[in-house]
Amino acid sequence: TAAFGALLRCFPCQRFCGGGAVPPGALPAAGPPPRRHLPPRTFRSYLPRSHRTYSCVHCRAHLARHEELISKSFQGSHGRAYLFNSVVNVGCGPAEQRLLLTGLHSVADIFCQSCKTTLGWKYEQAFESSQKYKEGKFIIEMSHMVKENGWD
Q1: Residue 14 included in any domain
Q2: Locate the Yippee domain: which residues (predicted)?
Q3: Could you say which of 14, 73, 81, 124 is the most buried, measured as most Cβ atoms within 10 Å of its Cβ?
Q4: How far is CA 4 from CA 9, 15, 24, 54, 60, in A?
Q5: Does any domain span residue 9?
Q6: Average pLDDT of the chain, as a whole number
Q7: What letters, b where the CB count within 10 A reaches 16 and e where it falls short, cover 108-139?
Q8: Shortest CA distance to 70 belongs to which of 81, 56, 55?
Q9: Per-residue model confidence as pLDDT tens digits over 16-38
Q10: Which CATH number goes with the domain that contains 88?
Q11: 62-101 pLDDT tens trace
């Protein structure tokens, strides 16, 4: 135990213990770590409670107002998806070209700013004239959304 005590030198607080070996029993008993109270999650944007909204199913961060919904008839990578005019609390990855059901597009994956779950993608550029209306719009897969506030 003398060798063990020699290893337990208190270098940062030499003024308190002189940097010598720590005597047995001087260290606090090992127990569970102290409980930390985490602050409530905060999001960049909160949508008004009076509006019907879509939120991240994983962390409940607000994503979009129902008024921003353009279409419910889209297909995501993993099932049905909605097309939105604008969204909040999402980050955007780098753009890349993908061949989708409606042709070649330049898209960037979008993810929840709070929990980092990939939600869908943003249309950066459409290469066919009939698809230009999608540019700057957002796809969010239904499996990553939950409806909140005022739905019947």
Answers
A1: no
A2: 52-149
A3: 81
A4: 10, 22, 10, 58, 49
A5: no
A6: 79
A7: ebbbbbbeeeebbbbbbebeeeebeebeebbb
A8: 81
A9: 445 555 555 555 555 555 555 54
A10: 2.170.150.20
A11: 999 999 999 999 999 889 999 999 999 999 999 999 999 8
Instruction: Look at the chain and count its residues.
Output: 152
Q: Are strands 103-112 and 138-141 parallel, antiparallel or unpaired?
A: unpaired
Q: 């459409």: which residue's tokens?
A: 126
In a domain, 66, yes or no: yes
What is the domain extent for residue 112? 53-148
pTM score > 0.70 for this model? no
CB contact at 8 A, 111 and 89: no
How far, in Å, CA of 6 to CA of 10, rounded? 10
